[in-house]
Amino acid sequence: MNHLEPEKPRISLLVAAPRGFCAGVDRAIKIVELAIEKYGAPVYVRHEIVHNRYVVDALKALGAIFVEELDEVPDGVPVVFSAHGVPKAVPHKAEERGLEYLDATCPLVSKVHRQAERQVEAGHHIIFVGHQNHPEVIGTFGQVDEGCMTLVETLEDVAALNPANPEKLSFLTQTTLSVDDTKAIIEALQDRFPSIVGPKGEDICYATSNRQDAVKNIAKSCDLLLVIGAPNSSNSLRLVEVAEREGTNAYLIQRADEIDLDWMKNVTTLGLTAGASAPEILVREVVNRLSEYFVVDEQQISTTDEHMVFKLPRGLEAA
Ligand code: SF4
Q: I need a surface site. Which of 64, 227, 273, 310 has the fewest CB within 10 A?
């Protein structure tokens, strides 16, 4: 080191594990890559395959074209549906148009879709716990006829429910919610409607709850926590909330260059995690940026190991 250069301050960096890509995101990205290999570019993708700009840009560079609606897909080209799932009308419309489609819906979201169908078949009205306008919620509502499902986001929404038949109710949840908030909402539902049926616990997926647990585990030891994720990524936003509830200031960033060095004033221990749609390369990018200004003592703090892998759709495994 140049002896005129001031010594860098030290920072302790606690990197949460598990973090980053889940099995559903990994599978969705592979589906787009394999579709491009199999059919050649361009392959159309309806909606951002996963909520991460870096991932979307990398797939665009390979030949993926992202659109919001099926109408924007020209005839004769394959289309992939995103990991968040789509209303039933979307594959129906694709079939009508003779479009080849690949469904990258996460199997854990598809499981909720099947539960919704079964509950409606059993004559139940479904109370769905989720965030309005999130693509997963739109996709799940689109599995059943209009009027069969009611969205609740808060305890106030539960208090305002007025179902036609309180004895014939079910609940389901979005997969990427806050574990703690959802528990409170389900308890409120069960208090108001004792005969309501639902999945054991909720439908929050293993990746969402593992990432929240990992943040809870380190948050109290950190002066600040950074979450790498997109502003429209539900599970990433929940990680910021989890840290804040533990009393730790937290920021959501998409890339390392968004770190404001003023945030680091008085920070001796920094926490770092990434939402389920953020690749590990973005975690390394943040560590590298920090290393420009600090001597970083990096430590990975793991709460559990993840080994989940989802099968690819038929026809793509051998591509
Ligand atoms: Fe599937 Fe959960 Fe990942 Fe969503 S966050 S894609 S539900 S594993």
A: 310
Task: Give, rounded to a whole angstrom, the gap between the first and last alpha carbons of the chain.
Answer: 51
What residue's CA is closest to ligand 1, atom 1?
A: 24
pLDDT score, position 1:
54
- CATH top class, domain 23-103: alpha beta
- pLDDT of residue 288 exceeding 70, the answer is yes
What per-residue confidence (pLDDT) applies to 317? 74
Give me the catalytic one of 33, 48, 136, 202. 136
Nearest C-alpha to atom 8 of ligand 1 is from which residue?
A: 24
CATH code for residues 10-21+206-302: 3.40.1010.20
> Is 306 one of the annotated active-site residues of the chain?
no
| Residue 202, pLDDT score | 79
**What is the whole-number distance in angstroms between the Cα of residue 30 and the centre of ligand 1?**
14
pLDDT for residue 2 is more than 90: no
Range(s) within the chain of domains with CATH label 3.40.1010.20: 10-21+206-302, 107-192
pLDDT at 3: 63
Q: For the segment 13-59, what is each residue's pLDDT rounded down to a tens digit?
A: 999 999 999 999 999 999 999 999 999 999 999 999 999 999 999 99
**pLDDT per position as a tens digit, 218-228:** 999 999 999 99
Nearest-angstrom CA–CA distance, 57 and 319: 23
User: Where are the domain boundaries for CATH 3.40.50.11270 in the chain?
Assistant: 23-103
Instruction: Tell me the sheet residues that pair with 272.
Output: 15, 226
